[in-house]
Amino acid sequence: MRFQEDKNILEAMKYIRRQNELYYNRTGRKKLAMITTYGCQMNVHDSEKLRGMLNYMGYADTENKENADLIIYNTCCVREHAEERVYGNVGALYSLKQERPDLIIGICGCMMQQEGMAENVARRFPFVDIIFGTHNLHSFPELLLKALQSNNTVVEILNDDRNIVEGVPINRAKGVSAWVTIMYGCNNFCSYCIVPHVRGREKSRSREDILSEIRDIARNGYKEITLLGQNVNSYGKDLHGNYLFSDLLVDIDKIEGIDRVRFMTSHPKDLSDELIKAMASCKKVCEHLHLPVQSGSNNILSKMNRKYTREQYLDLIARVRKSVPDIAITTDIIVGFPGETEQDFQDTLDLVRTVKFDSAFTFMYSPRQGTRAAKMKDQIDKDVKKQRLNELLEVQNFITGQKNSVFKNRIVEVLVEGTSKNDPNCLSGRTRTNKLVNFKGSPELIGKLAHVKVTNPKCWTLEGEAISEEV
Ligand code: SAH
Ligand code: SF4
Ligand code: F3S
User: Is 267 in the pocket of ligand 2 (CB under 6 A)?
Assistant: First the structure.
């Protein structure tokens, strides 16, 4: 379905835009919207769609809740900590709403899609105006109109369906990189994970829609795209053809104007030889693979329902490295999964030392209601989890430092994103292997590829200086 074909949504958007124009004519002030995003890139990109719809309706962006007319929290529920922050932040808006009853507060995203959650939140925070989920993001203008016209909380959570809504306006973050969703949902049901419960089953976008979006992105001056999906390696399997992820990469590689192509996330069980071949042959596809392993113990991997063994994972890494030498490999690891013994944990440390990941996101297992692992016996004590996490971090940090140290005096290609967050006199960008580089160079390099000599490799960043203007 195309967004532009839904008359109700279009009418709601036009109506609100007209009201906001009248408000602007009356007051000389534009209405302002603030969006706070939790969670993964999928949510970050959904927020770009919300911002696209809001801008169309005449709202300008703000990062300050004190002057916002509309505040949206786009939530995540992958771990408990993410939820607690949302509760705290929404609760804190109560006094703002008392002062300014016209303020519209919305909550959306994965957390709202959990069973019973929307009703709970509506009960606990009755001053919230709109609650919606991941499957009806595109209906936001209609829900906003309802909320503007009533005093009750508007709640609409839909169940997953096979429909993909194309053409939702997107206001992308400015810069060099753009996100492109190639598929929605996940079919894997790893036993710890809430994502399939809140994002629904796998649905691939058509190749035409993806390619035309990327051409459009290139025309708008972006240099790098990251293809998004919970499990991009299974792209196309639901489309009943034989056009798969590797074919998509080959086609994207030909699009002019784009210098770099990245993708995430890859599930080891679906990483095919064709994909490895495509990664090796496509010039724009970067030498970086994020391949979550989760655990180094076969016993835990099986309880996690990951569908690969430690040996298969190691074999995969060897094959990838053989075809794409110098590729950076990063991963996700969970410690303290139910039943994880000291030996299981040692197996994870051993795998980490064997693979030598460039970096790793490490998490303490967090039970999620409705998942199989949450009901498993032998939940691990919080202190043990913490201790294992620290031990793992220590091992990985040492490896990350070691891996970065070989870059000393090397010349790397950096796509320059802007000035460095910590030092406005420095530029900042990433290598093809996704390492962050802070370096001295002319601000004219921003948005371009530059050659940088690494002078001081650190654990989290490489420091250096530009040796030529553009590549
Ligand atoms: N689809 C991606 C990412 C999913 S969420 C993938 O399959 O890799 C990102 C990471 O969060 C996961 O890789 C996992 O390491 C972590 N994670 C997910 N559920 C978790 C839980 N219940 N407790 C702790 N970490 C979790
Ligand atoms: Fe969650 Fe597993 Fe799906 Fe990733 S592959 S989103 S970890 S169920
Ligand atoms: Fe969180 Fe939803 Fe992403 S649960 S990690 S925002 S898919």
Answer: yes
